[in-house]
């Protein structure tokens, strides 16, 4: 299994007090199993850092950023191929998909991910990638 984790996955993981954080923990455990891979596009790191600093302050943002970087998940840099594919998605979907999400979808597409774990409904409109919400995950 190879999955791409969206920004809202980490927001729920670190800041949710309901059963969403339980599901995110289970997903992270699955990502770390032999043969599995969890991918984090660098755009997700930037988006999440800004959100976590706004929600919890700079010290907390630094702590969770360092935790993600050292988590054993694969950080995927934005390459020229990912940038080009993001542009293809942006045009194909008439600019209805935000640039950050086009980059995340392009990362999933080019890395052959089984799906993107996200709560953003517009990922379901991108036919080139599959998306699953936390509620749709089965462990």
Structural description of this entry:
- By secondary structure, the protein is α/β, with parallel strands linked by helices.
- It has a single domain, classed as Rossmann fold, CATH 3.40.50.1010.
- It is built from six helices and five strands; from the N terminus they run βααβααβααββ.
- It has helices at 7-15, 20-32, 42-56, 58-69, 80-92, 99-110, and strands at 2-5, 37-41, 74-76, 115-117, 131-132.
- A five-stranded parallel beta sheet has the order 3-2-1-4-5.
- Helix 1 (7-15) crosses helix 2 (20-32), helix 1 runs parallel beside helix 3 and helix 3 (42-56) packs antiparallel against helix 4 (58-69).
- The radius of gyration is 14 Å and the shape is globular.
- The mean pLDDT is 95.
H and E order: EHHEHHEHHEE
Fold-level CATH name? Rossmann fold
What is the helical fraction, as a range of percent?
40-55%
Sheet having the most strands: 5 strands, parallel
What percentage of the residues does DSSP assign to strands (E)?
Answer: 5-15%
């Amino acid at each position: 299994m190879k999955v791409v984790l969206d920004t809202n996955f980490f927001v729920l993981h670190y800041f949710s007090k309901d059963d969403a954080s339980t599901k995110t923990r289970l997903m992270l455990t699955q990502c770390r199993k032999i043969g599995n891979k969890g991918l984090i596009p660098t755009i997700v790191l930037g988006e999440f850092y800004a959100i976590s600093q706004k929600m919890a302050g700079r010290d907390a943002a630094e702590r969770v950023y360092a935790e993600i970087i050292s988590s054993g998940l694969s950080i995927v840099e934005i390459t020229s191929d990912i940038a080009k594919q993001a542009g293809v998605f942006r045009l194909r979907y008439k600019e209805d998909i935000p640039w950050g999400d086009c980059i995340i979808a392009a990362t999933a597409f080019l890395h052959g991910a089984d799906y993107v774990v996200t709560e953003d409904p517009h990922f379901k409109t991108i036919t080139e990638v599959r998306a699953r919400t936390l509620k749709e995950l089965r462990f």
